[in-house]
Amino acid sequence: MKGLQGALWSLGGVPERVRQDNLSAATHELAKTGGHGLTRRFAEVVDHYGFDSSRIQPGESHENGVVEKAHHLLKSALVQALLLRGHRDFSSVEEYMSFVQRVVTERFHQGHEARIAEERAVLKALPTSRVPEYTRVVVDVRKWSTIPVSGHIYSVPSRLIGHEVEARVYADVVEVRYANKTVETMPRLRGEKAHRVDYRHVIWSLVRKPGAFAAYRYREDLFPSLVFRRAYDALRERRGDRADVEYVRILHLAASTGEHGVEQALTALLERGEAFDYVAVKAVAQPKEPTVPEIHIGVPDLRRYDALLAAGGDS
Which among 232, 251, 270, 300 is most buried, taking Cβ atoms within 10 Å? Predict the structure, then answer.
């Protein structure tokens, strides 16, 4: 959806026919009559843009040979550009997409402007707006501050427990909205029955029942980093069953005051090899109270203003 719409709007028009393979986002197998038909969402895109949809036969990828060759050429061009760049690190997805667009322009568009203009001249006009690039799901927030979306579990802020929220599932992210406002945006999960639980969302409920941590279904998600995992293991070794309560309180401290400071405190305590608990972590991580400087402002001498006025304001 996103890729197709992006291509059409980048071209500035709509072709008579769009050809695709039998990808599940566009087609599905017809159980009763056999063959393949368009999915409801893709059919809406076809109607919105007014093009004819054409697809290859299942298992006959050679029928899209021209497209497959173009895809191969693009991948080769990107590999060569990355080699010249010297590394494959990008600070964001946006930076990477900008890099790809530059390669496409330099490798495939430059020198072919006349042919591209010729093709654009026969395209149909774009509609006035795009089709929404997300699937809408309305769910209730469970008591553990989680929501089920497309077979996966996501956590949301605990203040939403018991409320109905809207989840918009995009290609790369899931956006959670409440009262017509976006309250959380998170990466979209892939695979089967995956889960993403942010400890900041569930800790406020868990801290009231810290004993539930041991049997918490998504307990592994409640270790923000390896340092927290090592800290919990150290607590289990020296504090036994009390470790769950101590760790939940430490996690609550991280959520309420700042994860970085608590992580630094845990690192220092682990390096010392000393036994510690929540109180010890808080003592190390507790930010220092800022000192307010004392400023003394004297009473202005109004005689100076009188002298300035008497001199006509030129002094």
Answer: 251
